[in-house]
Amino acid sequence: MMRRRDFIVHTPEEIVRIRAAAHAAALAREEIASLAKPGMTTRQLDDLAGAVIRSMGGIPTFLNYAGFPRNICISVNDVVVHGIANDYVMKEGDIVSIDVGVTLNGGIGDTAKTVVLGDKRTSKDIESLMTGTQEALEAGILAAKAGRHIHDISEAVAKTARQYKLGVVRDLVGHGCGIQLHEPPEVPNFVTKSPGPQLVPGMVLCIEPMFNLGTHRVYVEPDQWTVRTQDGRPSAHFEHMILIEENQTEVLTRV
Ligand code: MG
Known about the structure:
Elements: E1 2-3, E2 8-9, H1 12-35, H2 42-55, E3 59-60, E4 73-76, E5 79-81, E6 95-104, E7 107-116, H3 124-143, H4 150-163, E8 167-168, E9 174-176, E10 183-187, E11 204-207, E12 210-212, E13 218-220, E14 227-229, E15 235-237, E16 240-244, E17 249-251
Antiparallel strand pairs: 1-2, 3-6, 4-6, 5-14, 6-7, 8-12, 9-10, 9-11, 11-16, 12-15, 13-14, 16-17
Helix pairs in contact: 1-2, 3-4
């Protein structure tokens, strides 16, 4: 691992471990999302998530990270991210973000998706929240090419949010990842003044739009983790981990 001032380039040996951890995280994300059902508490889902991750030989990265008390982050409706599983009983129509970290053989995978529970038809608003956030992630991935800058990813993500008229959370950002959960650089979902580091082969980035149906403003609950929208309207979160290579960008958490 070569630490520059503001970004990290991973060695080929590290990338082997990171790729395996990211793949496990992606499989876990899909399995956990499919297990989420109305009538289940978020704590029950978190317990299942821990079992899924450990069955793959991994360790839940978020457990005890800076004191985080659960295996994964489960963020329902107006909770944007970092939701702590509890006795809340999930119901039909809930918008549930599942953010999974897997540590495997010294590599770390970090990925998230949001699902709407049950078979009820969703409203136009919710559909646009879900579609817009996913499209923003894909636009960010397409913009992430060697030689370009972090700024290009941010611009592509932010442009999609504007098209869908969604609120872009500014208090939280994407990040480098791989050997540590959070590595430099930051990957904002909004345009900043600085272009940020240039993208070079060996960089591993988590792109993770967090979009709100209403205001972009959020607050953190007294538990110091749970991030909620200020207006109580719902939020969605999708996250992929990518590897910058010379001639292509590999999405490490695609299944
Ligand atoms: Mg992340």
